[in-house]
Amino acid sequence: MNVEINSWTDRQLQSVLRQVLETIHDAVTIVDTEGIVQYWNRVSEETYGIMKEQIIGKRIGDFFQRESIMLIQVMESGLEVKQVYHEPRSGMHVIIDASPIRDSEGTLLGAIAIEHNVTQYVKMSAEMYTKQEEEELSSASFPFKPEVLQAAKLCVHKGQALLLLGENGVGRRAIAKWIHQELAHEGAFVTVSCSTIPEGLMEAELFGYEGEEVRQGKLDQAKNGLLYLKDIHLMPLYVQNKLAEAIQERSYTRLAGKMQVKLQCAIICAIPSESVVLSSLEDGTLLDSLYYMMFQQRIPSLSDRKQDLPELSRMIVEEAAGKLDMKAPLLTSDALAAIQAFNWPGNLPQLKHAIEHACFHVHASGQGQITALELPDYARLTTLAELTEGELPLSMHSEEMERGRILEALKRTNGNKARAARLLSISRGALYYKLRSYGIEDQP
Fold it and tell me: CA 20 to 30 Å from 185, out of 107, 135, 262, 441?
């Protein structure tokens, strides 16, 4: 059914907007220019346990001081803020987007904040991060599920060519090398980048040359090993055809040669994506007979593998810590939230860089954990605390300092509240009161 939005009345549009705000899965807060709450949706009620009738018409600062400061900053600056991390109470983690609201003439009406609750993700991330697998995989092989790994290994073991599809940086070469190591090939792992070899030299480079003396090609050099061919869609068609015949017949001839040479290496090829495959098949730059004889496996980008990031991060932390000869540091909840929020356009190399960068900082400072502060600037989330620090009342600074001391004492005493109270030089009753006041009763 086609609906003309322009024909709706303002009242109808308001009803639609209200329904949208009540339907989305994020908490929505709208305030006017005085910081008075004008809208508070169902998810906000569920998230914070504050009903509409309790908060609408009241100042947001009476309930959430840091959020109030942020919304005032947004209105004063006229600029939106994105991906702001906040822990409104112990054990709750949210990502906030906020922006000013203006009418059609540009007059400021107020501001809106949308909070995405990532608590369950952070909890699951922490569980996955600390879980030790019975069979450890490396960060190179992790994009494959175990059953897919076995299928890929089996096809290579049985002499079928494997085609890895995936963006640059997803780990195609690393996976090919991992398969080579897993199959315990006696021969070398040889790499050919088809984009860097001139067209006239490709055949000799790959198959070798027979003149007065034999010049070995990459297929010879990979004997009893594995040949990794990157960007085969850029290989000249006649060379693709010769490669397809070599895979099919398990033998080939060198350039200017007549003797058949037995093919004695495994072959793994790589193309950036399915879209490149389709366009290359359509324009005839990729030989369909070569393409269809290969077992194909797509390697997803990190942006498509958010659920894998915690465990993948753990693997990279352990690898980086091993290089630095240090105990693997833990990733804190704010660091895991930052890793989850970032899209990692550079894929695996970028994630490795970020975590290795953090490990160097942790090693230099002697810390035992990686927080969001140790990640590179491009991967960090701005926290609400950072955003509002300069304008926070002194009383709240004192409260946050006390809350931090209590959490540190509980950590040092492994959650023993009696010992923590002694460490803080307060009574156990006073500690329980403060735990309730700061919303950290559930701390171990």
Answer: 135
Q: Which of 39-48, 167-176, 247-256, 434-443 shows the lowest per-residue confidence on average (mean pLDDT)? A: 434-443
Identify whether the C-beta of residue 163 lies closer than 8 Å to the C-beta of residue 292. Answer: no
Nearest to 59 by CA among 84, 32, 82, 36: 36
Give per-residue burial for 200-226: e unless 16+ CB within 10 Å, then b.
eebbbbbbbbbeeeeeebbbbebbebb
Q: Which helix (H) or strand (E) holds 369?
A: strand 369-370
Mean pLDDT (the chain) is 84
Angle, CA 253 vertex, CA 248 and CA 294 arms, to 5°: 25
- Residues 222-231: what's their mean pLDDT? 96
- Long-range contacts formed by 31-39: CB under 8 A, 24+ apart: 31/60, 31/71, 31/110, 31/111, 32/109, 32/110, 33/75, 33/108, 33/109, 33/110, 34/59, 35/59, 35/60, 35/61, 35/68, 35/71, 35/72, 36/60, 38/110
Token pair 């297929």 in the structure block, residue: 219
- Could you list the beta-strand ranges (E) of 108-203: 108-117, 162-165, 189-193
For residue range 159-206, list pLDDT tens digits in order: 899 999 988 888 889 889 989 998 998 999 999 999 999 999 999 999
Q: Sheet containing 295-298: which strands, arranged edge to edge?
A: 189-193, 226-230, 266-271, 162-165, 295-298
Tell me the pLDDT tens digit for each residue of 269-290. Answer: 999 988 899 999 999 999 999 9
User: Residue 222, SS3?
Assistant: coil
Torsion over CA: 193, 199, 201, 207 (sign): positive
Q: Residues 269, 294: contact at Cβ < 8 Å?
A: yes
Which residues have CB under 8 Å from 8's CB, separation 6+? 16
